[in-house]
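Blackboard transcription, Thursday session:
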Amino acid sequence: MKRSLAQQITIGLGLALALLVANTVVSYRNTLKLISNQRLVTHTQQVLTELEATLSTLKDAETGQRGYLITGEERYLQPYESAVSKIDRQINYLKQLTADNPNQQQRVFALESAIATKLTELAQSVKLRREQGFDAAQQIVISDRGKQIMDNIRADITEMENIENQLLQQRTKESQAKLQETLLTFSIAAAINLALLALVYYLFRLNHRQSKQEEEKLRQNNERLTLALDAGKMGSWDWNLLTDEILWTIYHEIIFGYEAGKPNRSYQEWADRVHPEDLPQVEALVQASLKHPQDFHAEYRVVWADNSLHWVTAFGRFQRNAENRPIRMVGVVSDITERKQAEAEIIQLNETLEQRVLERTTQLEEANEELQAFAYSVSHDLRAPLRAMQGFAEALLEDYENILDELGKEYATRIVTSAQRLENLIQDLLAYSRLTRSNLELKVIDLTTIMSEVMTQIEAEIEQTQAQVNIQSPLPKVIAHRPTLVQVITNLLTNAMKFVDEGVQPEIKVWAEIRGECVRLWVEDNGIGISPKHQKRIFRVFERLHGMETYPGTGIGLAIVRKGISRMGGSQGVESQLGQKSRFWIELRRGDSEKET
Amino acid sequence: MQRMSTRTILLVEDDPNDILLTQRAFRKANLAHASLQIVSDGDSAVFYLSGEGKYSDRDRYPLPVLILLDLKLPRRSGHEILAWLRQQPEIKRLPVIMLTSSKENMDINQAYDLGANSYLVKPVGLTALVEVVQTLNLYWLLLNQQPEIRVF
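(Written on the board underneath:)
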């Protein structure tokens, strides 16, 4: 498991501290040992010094004795006597010093007795000199006994000194070793400690750098969020449900019409600004979001202290803990007053548009009504004098036949035919205008029955022109308006009968073909034909290609065909050449298409 | 029961030409038992039928058995006269034939809705008019069973 940097630092510091303590303990103990060693060395040196001093004292005593033996003068005895008085103390001191070393102690005791023997020998020689004179004393000296004792003592002391020297050497060595050991362990421990501290320092620096980077990252994130929110003119809130603390950003305060700078806000401060009509609904939405895991979104009105109205949109989300209990709600809020105003304007524009459409429709309806009134007037008022003209002209011809000469009769006849022509024209115009105005209810109609209806209507003309009409029945079904279709086909057939050269018997063929979803009905004649350049014109109102004398007519027949077919959603056309037969066609939707059956 | 000899037809028509031509047609049709009474505006028609003013003289202005009614009339339209007539308890059953120049569906349907018995478009031409008068006579005066009209 990888430990965090902070843990590593703690561990490093702990290790360094433990090592420091251990080093201190070890060093302390080594130093104690060193001190005790040093004391032992000193001790040994004291023993050595004391041994030398004892030997020296003994020599002083011998020197004094020799002086007295030679001279007999009492003054030479003085060093001897002071030495004798000193030596006991020195022996005792040696005993004390060697108390820790039984071997040396033994030797001290031996030395003490040897010294005692020497002192006795010295005292005897001094006594002999004083009592028996120089020669007696000389005898003792010559006997060489004193020298032997002295040599023994010297040997003893030398031995003891050697032992002590050995000890000294050993202890010094030990001390030095200890010192070196202490120095070594201390140095190693210190070095390790230093290394550890360096490591800790490194880790610390690393940690510092990392936390600085994280801090920077955090700061950048925060800055980015703030920038984005500010750029979007969005406020944001953070509602801690556990402490009931609410934090607002500056924009949130601005949007709610508060003076910015007090980020801590209460629920009440929010509720105070929500439009009273909207508050229950918004609170219900918050509750809904609280109960179900769904985000909160509401658009509501905010009323500022100055009573101005502001629309806001708010999006929020509840944060939940491990037990799925909501603990916090965070969200953004933005001012959408302009959008709402634009929407309201659009709605208003739509309404005024509807109003305008309504006005236009009314105007159109009025125009249409005027047109209807006009048509009514034409059919009623204009035709009344016409009827009178024709009626009275006919009355003249009938009632005053005997009085009128031939010219008078012709004039009256011309009045009658002119009135008749005008009557036809008015009838056609009215038919055309009816086609334009009325609603045509389209139904499925069998062309065969339509054709027989047409044939009945033009019976008189067929009789009159001796026309041959050949219909290839059965014909298919189409979708059309029956009276209009009858009128259209009637017009086509009467045209076909009319526009033939004089003396030619009209021959008319009628057949149908199915073209996809449409039915095309053909009417072919053996007539005078139409030049291609005129083929478009003939479907217009009042377009006539011939003089009234050759082919009488109102010039509305084909216009009615075109208008009627277009009102039934179809199309029409003609194929012809001047001097050749013409083939007119109309096309309507099929009445029995596969789609419908 | 009225006497078979004279049956009155009331023509409500404002156009003097049409009146003249219709009178001629009646002459030409040579009707034996019918006489033509003419009023030329809506109010007069109502006065005639209700017997007001000079029309209270039923010897001179007998109650008609048939009314030929134009649509476009001064003061009161044909539709209005028809609507009024059908509201009168005594004479509401009088047969009314619209005789007008209008071919408009609206006019035709409204006339039937108000209780017209027939609707004819004024024919053009004298012969046609004579035929219409003859047919009227044959159907409405001779063949048709007259409803009971209470005379007051």
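Lecturer's comment: Chain B touches chain A at residues 15, 17-18, 20-21, 24, 71-72, 100-104, 107, 122, 124-127, 129 (CB under 8 Å).
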